[in-house]
From TrEMBL:
InterPro entries: TM_pro_TauE-like, TSUP/Inactive_protease-like. It is a multi-pass membrane protein. Coiled coil: none annotated. Belongs to the 4-toluene sulfonate uptake permease (TSUP) (TC 2.A.102) family. It comes from the Bacteria. GO terms for cellular component: plasma membrane. This is Probable membrane transporter protein.
Amino acid sequence: MTLPHIDLLYSVSGLAVGFLVGLTGVGGGSLMTPILVLLFNVHPATAVGTDLLYAAATKSAGTLVHGLKGSVDWRVTLRLAAGSVPAATITLILLHRFGMDTPRAGHLIQSVLGAALLITAVALIFRPQLAAFASRHRHAPGEARTLFFTVLTGAVLGVLVSMTSVGAGAIGVTVLLLLYPALPTVRIVGSDVAHAVPLTLLAATLTLVGVRLVLA
């Protein structure tokens, strides 16, 4: 029985990304997808699908831990999923319909990836200030308004994550801090992690199936 060949550079990249994510808690998609595209010359759609599948596995473990600790607000998770799941499905159907393997689609994914990385960087840099602002203004907006903007946030994340695998953590948590100022940070993080599981699993499945059909 022969073992499959393993490129050590992939393993080293995974180790480095895992180490940084372990230190910071965010950035898996922000780091791994660009590495796959720029360093390993992987097609953008394949890189996104691969990273999404990996994220689905890791987020599942994180959800289990947060769930056992009671640090998941399932109401917030369901509201996010109500927007993200349909948005991700529509986005990937459109990408497959217009040709995911075309240079135009590759350039589009790379452009959206660049924008998502910039937004993620801004969200991470200014998160302490936003968290402080939210703690000073602990009166959440009206229930209907909160529901609307939570679903809208989920829809935006669905588009970004399905196209780039970036944004579910840094951007989602930052927006939730503003929408739910009375909710403890640990529950916001746990709710965002739990929401990422169905989103990344769905997006990974649709992306990789689409790529396989295209390359077949």
